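Entry:
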Amino acid sequence: PPGPRKGVILNLAEYRMYYFPEPKDGEPAIVMTYPMSIGRMDWETPLGLTHIVSKVRNPTWYPPDSVRAEHAANGDPLPRIVPPGPKNPLGAFAMRLGLPGYLIHSTNRPAGVGMRVTHGCIRMFPEDIRFLFDQVSVNTPVRIINQPVKIGWHGDELVMEVHRALEFVPFETDSGEISNEGLPEDLLVQPERNILTALTEQFVAATNTRAGELDWERAEDLLERADGIPMPVGRTIKNAATSAASE
């Protein structure tokens, strides 16, 4: 996704997490990516800039009053404290974010990973977070975005991937303040920001140091389909330097 390739990026639009570990001397930069669940419509995961504040193995769950009330209304009352174990929805690993009440955690219901089913937290497959837990350190930056369009190079082809944009969620900071002012542009989606504008800016960024041309008709078709399948929408202009020199 667009933006700084540092720390953890949670792209809600594609239900996917990206982790960019600090490269070791002499080694190329890499990215680790995992599917995730996000907050459902009435318990949205907020967009924002935050960080990992703590990590806990075998966490105890203290259900918020709002969650306990919902369960009670559905005839499934929750205790005030859920100890570690197979009935704990946090699973065996949890990483607390600077946004109060939000976690990246494992699950005892892995079938829901990749869906909009949580109370706002980020849920991962147990085997994925088991590995990631030891890789990510406290204070690692976390950027939560809702970016439905991605553009990048694969060889000489310019490839684009489009997902359905989720409804806009308010910007929330580590201090808990919620505001749309100062929201970084790469977090914005419709209607606050036209998706064609995002497409244009990503194309410009992708061709900043490498000349390329975009098939706009094909790109607009992908915007309409929004099926999450990466497809070629352009190519390298191999003779760009020669053409420019001859003009």
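Residues 147-246 form one domain.
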